[in-house]
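Discussion board: Methods & Data

I've been asked by a reviewer to show the raw model output for two of the constructs in my manuscript, not just the figures. I'm not sure how much to include, so I'm pasting the format here to get opinions. Each protein appears as its amino acid sequence followed by a line of discrete structure tokens. Is this the kind of thing reviewers expect to see in a supplement, or should I convert it first? Here is construct A:
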Amino acid sequence: MTATAPASIDATIGLLRGAGYVADRPLATVLFLALRMGRPLLLEGEAGVGKTEVAKTLATALGRRLIRLQCYEGLDQSAAVYEWNYAAQMIAIRLAEAAGESDKGAMAADVFSERYLLRRPLLEALEPHPEGPPVLLVDELDRTDAAFEAFLLEVLADFQVTIPEIGTVKAPAPPIILLTSNRTREIHDALKRRCLYHWVDYPDAERELAILRARLPGVGATLSREVVAFVQALRKDDLFKVPGVAETLDWASALVELDAVALDPGQVGDTLGVLLKYQDDIAKTDAGRIERLIEEARRAVRAAE
């Protein structure tokens, strides 16, 4: 069922929470404005803080189709927008020749018509959809190069693409566009000017606990609080890769699978590979450090009660 866009910031918070995403007010504000103004939204932040989930949750909450363009080094127009079905075109040409077709212009017009066009994510997002304009997620834009960014400008500014053989394809209603970046490189100012912007940071303890409860309601109250307090304390360490919310959720799930009801130093040490993804970080978090972090986490839990 398709839902209407939220009418206020509070309604935006409620819409996302209803689909399992706990957003803070600054994120809800910029998302509300992006929806009301019909502007693309660029979300930057560390990996695992929930940028991609914003688009997924929004599509679910609004009942819209999610179209995802996963970016990578070397991504080009043929993979992102369209390409021609060359095999089908060649068959059509051979059949036309066998039938005695001699009008080259008519033959070219036929094989470069829409029926031979393979639509990729950007072109799909510009076409009409029965449930309403889709949510277009351009994920990890920083993995592409400046040339692809430049190509995106037409889509972000005018919600259209130009196909030389056919002409300009313009969306009848602008899609909801969210772009994400882990900031492994700077996104060009020309692209940023066409978007609203928000930095998605690590959540504080209260919001991270709310996220864990929303996503994993089966985790016990004590374990939930201790997991969040432990991760919050761990993020203060000098680590190569600080664990994100995604790792917090994975770790809580892993501990539940091990029948944990509270943090145990042995189980924490055995499951660090769920929380930390670099050996140097795991090596730093030795048994003594684990015990100190657990004690710090329990103090934080007691103070919050």
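Construct B, same format:
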Amino acid sequence: MNTYLIYGNDYGLIKREIDKLTNEASDVVKYDLSTDKIDELLDDASCMSLFGDKKVLVGENALFLTTTTTNVNHNLDYLSNYLNDDNHENIVVLSVLTDKLDERKKIVKLLKEKSKVIYKELIDNKDLPRFVINEFNNEGYKIDYKTANYFVNYVGKNVDILLSEINKMIIFKDNDKNITTHDINEISSKAINDNVFDLSDAIMKKDFKRMYDCYNDLIILKEEPIKIIAMLGNQFNLVYQCKLLSSKGLSEKEIATSLSVHPYRVKLAIETDYIISELKDILIKLHNLDFEIKSGKVDKNVGFDNFLLHL
């Protein structure tokens, strides 16, 4: 099965599933289906890769699968025909940030029948220690509940950051499979929510002097750019989703319900100076920077400096 549908309310978990499908691919093409037509993605999916391998076509923000109204005229008959034809070499991944799909739509029913559906349920804070335990166990490592709870409190409750810190722990503990609080104190980075909130707030308000002051503070604290990128990605994605849904005519209350966030966060997001196209560009830059750092193509500090310089 070469077609995937990934949805849920946690962008970090959705992104992780997409990364699993794209990490080994040499030819990955991404579309934003809140502005791009599904027709373009499917046309691309019908062409062979220049590299001779399978292509992965990722269509994010597939809002046409939800109750949200969009102005994009998607050719759903084309998508239906594509799904009904099992003879596809390339991989198509559709994703959308939502807790519920519109089950009344025929295309949703067909996708559930013809594609592999992955639902990433929002992880409650009380379940994060168990999530950490499972992630370590999946890699052959052991950590007890008390230590996992300490780990969550130490590095923070952001799923992206938890996964980043788990990966870092695995790299450092390659010869010893038992995770202790001593390991966490020695290897993991403390939660930086307040510092990164100040940085993201400065970026959102386009206060560049404060932005660099905040960033310099984080450098002094020896915080990892990967962690900062993950938190900024979550923040900018929330603002992007709020602005997008607001442009479709949804009220702040409706947006808050749809995204399962506090109405005040929606209000602040909508009031930011960035327009939708700028936010989309920043999210793409953050995603590319994350990939380039993790793949060793760019130095993490130089890469993040360059990102801030080109905001």
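Answer (T.O., handling editor elsewhere):
This is acceptable in a supplement if you add a one-line summary per construct. For B, something like: The domain at 3-120 is CATH 3.40.50.300 (Rossmann fold).
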